[in-house]
Amino acid sequence: MPLPERMRPGKVSSNKINELSKSAEMILSKIDGGSVQEDPILVTMMGEWNNQVVYPYTFSDFRDFSSWTRAREFTRMAFNLERFYPDYTWSELIQTIKFICDSEGKESEQNFALSLLERNFNGNPSDLIFWPDSWFQNPEMLHVDLSVDEIAGYLMAIHQNDE
């Protein structure tokens, strides 16, 4: 099940993703080569890169991305800016949680969907989905397999209590 239509990240051409992925790798290479954060060439490279994306990255983002993702996914994530939806519906919440639980889409889309939940619902949605023992503060809940409806219900209950 895809993300709700109005909540999907914007489309970016594969040429732009390729171009910026190569630039991100060049920035990382410069950092790995010993450039410091204040290096004028590095500052210019990062500035040019950040001027082309929705979500700008910092020195530490460029320095560390290769430890958790590829340059292409890192670049895609820079175009995904989650919004707050005051009218987030039950069916949209179900769709978003199902998208995450079914591991649909690319890594950047999964990251976006989690960020969307985090932005719109209190109570640490990612812990509820992936680490229910932590969310419930009960070690016996580690292997509990919550349904999509149960996850949505807990998020809505927390959300309503916080309003």
Automatic annotation (TrEMBL):
It comes from Rouxiella badensis. It comes from the Bacteria. This is Uncharacterized protein.
